[in-house]
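Morning. Coffee machine broken again, so started the prediction first thing and wrote up yesterday's gels while waiting. Chain of 283 residues, entered below exactly as on the submission form.
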Amino acid sequence: MYDDTTERRRRFAEAARDDRPDLALLCLLVSAEAAAGAGPGLREDAADAAQMELDRLTGLLPALGRRAEPRHWAQALAELLGGRCGFHGTPADYRRLESSLLDEVLRRRRGLPILLSVIWMEVARRAGAPVYGVALPGHFVVGFGDPFGHHVLADPFEGGRILSEEDAGLLIAGATGAPLTPSLFSPAEPLEIVLRVLNNIRAWAAARPERSDVQLWAVELSLLLPTHPARLRYERAELLVERGDFARGARELEEYAEVIAPVEPTAAETVRHQALAARAMLN
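Came back before lunch.
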């Protein structure tokens, strides 16, 4: 990783467009962006150390073989990561930015469900397990086996507790009130996971106006992903204006208005007025 913003963004965009995106690398590039905002940035050797730690944890797993039952994989990961190594989450972790940064979660052994799941997935993948992420509404978990057939779900936030279908249904109902449907168990792609990590960081920063710098870089990284919500462009423009970059913010508001005008003409006109107000701040 390098301190230079342009180089970090180039590496992130390049990694995101790889035919087989490296989830751990992308999460470490997010960590590099966070570290740069706080000081000198995540060093290359620190990122390498995080990858080596994932390799080391993999080496501690028992040799199960590729034919092992999904439940055996889930139990082995829970015993190692949740038990021996103490990886899990607590409600307090939702209040810490570090809980969304892979290198910090590896160091602290605490984090949000999605980052703990990334560690479970990366260790299991290295060991040859049939593993995938499951983006349940409001709570990320890990699946082992065939997502459309025989599989087992585990919750890394609770140390790898194996979830029954009823348990998963309760998690979903608690988060959204929606019923359990098979589509919710579809594997999450690496770029979907990275976008969700960045969404969590944006939400953390949005609740802390003094950390608009964090919200801005999280938005900017999200915009480098091949697929992202168009409204992120509006959020970025608003943040630029809030942070006093009136000219760039106004320009991006105008560009966003042009994009949405064909389908949302009233909203586009409102955004144009915001751009005019931002330009007026230059006088």
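The mean pLDDT is 91. Going to sketch it on the whiteboard this afternoon.
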